[in-house]
Amino acid sequence: MKKKYILIITGMPATGKTTNGKKIARKLHLPFFSKDAIKEILFDSISNNNAKYEDKRKIGVTSYDILYYQTEELMKAGISFILESNFVKQSSNILKKLISTYNYTCITIRFESDLKILHKRFLERETTSERHPGLIANGVFDNFENFKKQNEKCNEFKINNNEIIVDTTNFNKINIDEIINYIKKIT
């Protein structure tokens, strides 16, 4: 019998977590759950395109609560799956407890990039029409120092030593098959 496992994809916004996470999910035939996807649904149900950042942050907190609920329900059923978000330290404690309670193997895939390149990519993405209005940061991270502080918070997220670091400074250099092979060795 294969191990029950959870893949946790984390990193700063604009590192390619969602795009690459969905590729990994397809190749491994795993369900994929993204905090931002939940946030978009909640935001749309409120349909307030003029929401301030603080209101969006509150929706984000609720999105995490839903994500943790989904996580526990999947674990109760013994299903392997993928979670994706820009997790921070507070998430570590919640997820560690669930992983321990339901005896799951956990692999973290951390997407990282040169911070200046990432900040530029983030700012460009914020102004595109494809960016969901519920995910736009309303200028909070326009300042590089604020963006850098958020990166430090994201780097505090840690579950265990089963961690894959993926450099996304150049998206063309990401090797999804190499990531898949590492996951298959552990699971």
Cα end-to-end separation: 10 Å
Strand order of the largest sheet: 2-3-1-4-5
Shape: globular
- Number of individual domains: 1
Number of contiguous helices: 7
| The first-level CATH class name | Alpha Beta
What name does the CATH topology carry? Answer: Rossmann fold
What's the CATH H-level superfamily name?
A: P-loop containing nucleotide triphosphate hydrolases
Rg is 16 Å
Low-pLDDT windows of residues: none
Largest sheet: 5 strands, parallel
Give the overall average pLDDT. 91
Proportion of residues in β-strands: 5-15%
Q: Name the CATH architecture.
A: 3-Layer(aba) Sandwich
Helix content percent band: 40-55%
Describe the structure.
The chain has a single domain, classed as 3-Layer(aba) Sandwich (Rossmann fold), CATH 3.40.50. It is 51% helix and 14% strand. It has 7 helices and 5 strands; from the N terminus they run βαβααβαβααβα. The chain has helices at 17-28, 35-46, 53-76, 89-101, 115-126, 144-155, 176-186; strands spanning 5-11, 32-34, 81-84, 105-112, 163-167. The protein has a 5-stranded parallel beta sheet with strand order 2-3-1-4-5, with helices on both faces. Helix 2 (35-46) crosses helix 3. The longest helix has 24 residues, at 53-76. The mean pLDDT is 91.
